[in-house]
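Cast an eye over this sequence plus tokens and walk me through the fold:

***
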Amino acid sequence: MNSQQKVAIVTGAASGIGKSVAERYAEDGITVVLSDVNQTSGEQAAAQIRQAGGQATFVMADVSNPTDCEHVVDVALAQYGRLDYACNNAGIGGEQNQTADLSIEGWQHILAINLSGVFYCMKYQIPAMLKSGGGAIVNMASILGQVGFAGAAGYVAAKHGVVGLTQAAALEYSPQGIRINAVGPGFISTPMIHELEENLELKSALVALHPIGRLGQPEEVAELVIWLNSEKASFVTGAYYPVDGGYLAR
């Protein structure tokens, strides 16, 4: 990756996949603007990157608030003068319930963060990238952006929406030098599913859904994100890439 003076934004970067993506950007010499609702963990993640020799800034932001999403981009431009890459990773599992029992509030909350948040981020990232001469965006979808999962109607709907939003934006902005792709992780060992992992019976059932025989690690998703942002993926846009241990091949 040509990292000379390149700048990336990562949302949901305080832990899990987002943190791993931010660390991988920094390893490649890219300046990283990390954002998250968890200020303490987010600042720690940025500090760890700086301690390792990288450049990183943390901005507290709730992606369900469009003003926050704009502010993150504004900070990147004010401090570093450009924006080249983004990984829109922030998301929640949200309320788990059968569709008719899913609360209105639960549905709205999941979509506000997992789908509208991606739109808000791109709305402000894209103009900044155009001014910088182009760039690449990776939106974090899920295996559930391709298939259903009982008890997770809101999450499934939002992640399917992320894939469609990614494709539409890619059609619009690829001719202007911005590639936009989506990544679909399987079940990854992150704080989002740690409670599930503590139930050994449930963890065993989750592992069984992945033919590779284990859950994924955040670093494995980060490697795909970095590749999609790199010039090695220069002809890849509007695509959905699963990183799922064979889940979708079942």
